[in-house]
Amino acid sequence: MPVEPLSRKEIEDRLAQLPGWSLDGDRLTRSFRLGSHFAAAAMVVHIARVQDELDHHSDLTLGYNTVSLGVNTHSAGGVVTEKDFELARRVQELAPAHGAG
Ligand SMILES: C[C@H](O)[C@H](O)[C@H]1CNC2=NC(N)=NC(=O)C2=N1
Known about the structure:
binds ligand H2B, single chain, four-stranded antiparallel β-sheet, alpha+beta, Putative pterin-4-alpha-carbinolamine dehydratase, EC 4.2.1.96, 4 strands, PCD_sf, 3 helices, lyase, 101 residues, 20% strand
């Protein structure tokens, strides 16, 4: 089933439930700060597993004590869809276990 682009209002309504996430152009983005570089690397692996499960993948960047994501839906023309929010919610759920804020 094709995924449809979300309207600006639909995106803003969903962002209101996702602290720390924002719309940067046509991508949902968020950065997390962690207690160590190794903790950040572990969170990247955890996110990678979820992304494979969802078959939906962000640009996922490991920095010094940071993890950053940017995601949109290529198959919908590189815009934000419900699939991006599904991934963002899953990342929000796993973040506390990594001490990520
Ligand atoms: C074949 C596979 O389902 C597609 O390439 C998936 C994989 N992961 C994806 N990730 C993202 N962010 N957008 C997509 O359109 C997408 N498509």
